[in-house]
Hints:
The structure holds two protein chains of two kinds. Helix content of chain A is 55%, strand content 11%. Chain A is an alpha+beta fold. Chain A has three domains: 6-142, Cupredoxins -  blue copper proteins (Immunoglobulin-like, Sandwich); 156-176 and 434-656, no CATH class; 179-278 and 291-431, no CATH class. In chain A, the strands form four sheets. In chain A, strands 3-9-8-5-6 form a five-stranded mixed β-sheet, with no helix packed on it. In chain A, strands 2-1-4-7 form a four-stranded mixed β-sheet, with no helix packed on it. In chain A, a hairpin with a 2-residue loop joins strand 10 and strand 11. By secondary structure, chain B is an alpha+beta fold. Chain B folds into two domains: 1-32; 40-134, Immunoglobulin-like, CATH 2.60.40. In chain B, a hairpin with a 4-residue loop joins strand 5 and strand 6 (89-94). The chains are: A alpha+beta, B alpha+beta. At the A-B interface, helix 4 of A face helix 1 of B. The structure holds iron/sulfur cluster and copper (II) ion (2 copies). The site of iron/sulfur cluster has 11 residues of chain A, from helix 6 and helix 12.
Amino acid sequence: xxKNHLLSVAVIVIALVILGYALPVTGxxxxxxxxxxxxxxxxAEADSSPKIIEITAKRFTFEPNIIHVKLGEEVIFRIKSADxxxxxxxxGYDYFVTIPPGEVVDVGPIIFDGPGKLKIRCAITxxxxxxxxxxxxxxxxxxxxxxxxxxTLGMFGATTLYISRGPSNRxxxxxxxxxxxxxxxxxxxxxxxxILQWRGIHFALIWPNLLIFMIVLTTAFFGNPTxxxxxxxxxxxxxxxxxxxFMILFAGRLWCTVCxxxxxxxxxxxxxxxxxxxxxxxxxxGKKWPKSLNNMWIPAFGFLGISxxxxxxxTRPVVTGFLFLILIVLPxxxxxxxxxxxxCRSVCPAGGYxxxxxxxxxxxxxxxxxxxxxxxxxxxxxxGSPKGYGCPWVLYPGGNDQNTYCGQCFECLKSCPLDxxxxxxxxxxxxLANLATKAKxxxxxxxxxxxxxxxxxxxxxxxxxxxxWFKDWGNMGNIFGANLATIGLLTPSxxxxxxxxxxxxxxxxxxxxxxxxxxxxxxxxxxxxxxxxEHAPKQVFLSFSYALTPYSLFLWLAFAITLVTVNWxxxxxxxxxxxxxxxxxxxxxFAWRPILPDFxxxxxxxxxxxxxxLAVNSTYNIAVRLFGDHAKALxxxxxxxxxxxxxxLVFIWIISG
Amino acid sequence: xxxxxxxxVLLWESxxxxxxxxxxxxxxxxLADGIFMPREPDEIVVRMSIKESGGFxxxxxxxxxxxxxxxxLISMDVSHGFTVEGLxxxxxxxxxxxxxxxxxxxxxxxxxxxxxxVQCSPLHHYMRGLxxxxx
Lengths: 657, 135
Ligand code: SF4
Ligand SMILES: [Cu+2]
Ligand SMILES: [Cu+2]
């Protein structure tokens, strides 16, 4: 019976996907036939000369920034530069053209034989924002966009159909109450267990990252002032940033396991790098963390704050350098005072979202048997033993049922004498419903979701969208890269500052007020439609916000693949030439060349759609738990699904419309 | 804890401490330019940045008359050009993506001026240096 649901939904989804992808292709075919038919007429007119499109490249955009061409049309781009040397590259066409100032360069003729949105990208480093110097080419009629809309609506429909059958405690067909005890899997399990119980594992994992971190710090301050040529920018903001999103999905807070930032503080408080040592002495005062800070407000606002300066942060090494300096000094001060990982719990901006999104992860550290934990009086996982510290993240690991504050340091795996702690593989969203219904006053977590959700859409638009004014406002109109020696170049102009203010109001306003207000309106409507009278609107609002956790994680994954497939060459080159001085340490210097950029929307779409399905299904699971009634839950999640679908459509529009 | 265990713990602690020191030493990477990019005796590396962030590095290039030198031109930020006025060195464009190597044998003693020939920044026209041929 249950299998049947899954099968029918799978069939629907597959059919939709085929249909959706077929649409642009058939569109393209018919257009080709059309052009062939037109050809004779055209020849008669003797007007087969290609259309010439004039483009001016300037830091950091092309003008015009949105170019419309017809399917099958032959085009020559006539390009000149308004300032420095730029490059010219079109997704899917292998042109790497240099455009020096003072010259006019013709590119083409190019025949655009597929519909959709392609990007013109700058191919020659031209300044700090060079990697984000893009313009759109819309090959019209753009069948791809309606096809994508169709697929998005189809996904919403299919998911709603699926939940209308009342799947209990399942996520997209997979049961949520089942999981795999990874440490008991044949062959792999015992080996993994040995490794994780080895005292040196934490240090061994942190060390390489400490090395990389030191290189980040030094290159940020003293290396090449141009972002994409500098290790700190290329490795942190292209490689690390993207990798963390994937880590969250597959391994929860694994980043926090290997993170070097709090390491110095922790080592100092422990006065040990490897072994277990008694705490509560000199340099580990064990002070109480203020209750008012025991939440994720600081991380949430930290991430938003960072995002407000993100056009600078991810392009100016010195800005990145100062951020990381703060992020390593803070825990160094906090750790000896509060002894445990309060910095990671409630301060670190990365820790905040990594923790919150980890609730959508397929990995978790949990106890095997709750009753064993409850009956066990000594509870070494809290108090520690000679084999492992008591939970440095101030949890009771045995009773923990959420990933938010579990840093996956594996201490409880070592300290538990009853072998009751393990690594579990489970379906996305196992804990969400429970978490969401318990969230009575957790505005911090809701706003973390709103901030992360609106910002991923903003990022996609700012970095890979054609709207230069928006980029430029965020960038304060500054054209210089900077390291420590040239930091003065970042002094903003008055115009730049006032533009930035506008940007901050737009970005911050949407994240903090606009979208949450919309979300509140929808959740209120959902509650009304469901006919629920027992719960306060606030409760419904907060609970439903947890459905954004898997959703925004998936949108970030979609963003991450753009980041990596387009700019993978920069971090790889940076490993050979960290300072951007022309070294070649490892022989990994690569020329910039995006991987299948013309297919990017097709890669991103399925990720977005899975996110959408997860959001709708999570809302349903939360609503079932909250209202205790299938019919009510179905109605509520359909209403919320409309909002989630709208958001997906916005994202789809950015990548294909 | 018995003696043997204590000893192994101590061993691990020391190894770890040593590793931490090694990692922290990576901070001094910029000092290792000569090690990680060794120059041949006849090689002169010229790093080029827009004038605002330093211009040519070095700004004074000294060569010996009659001795062939290889100038390795590396652009740090945007595309630049490299021309020595009065000598036979004229590199039209050096893109940041690729270094350019020119070989040159100076025939006549003198002090020449080199400059960037590709519009590169507001202060582009001040991006210049001295090329000295000694006897
Ligand atoms: S919370 Fe931040 S500092 Fe702590 S381990 Fe995670 S990423 Fe590192
Ligand atoms: Cu450019
Ligand atoms: Cu120049």
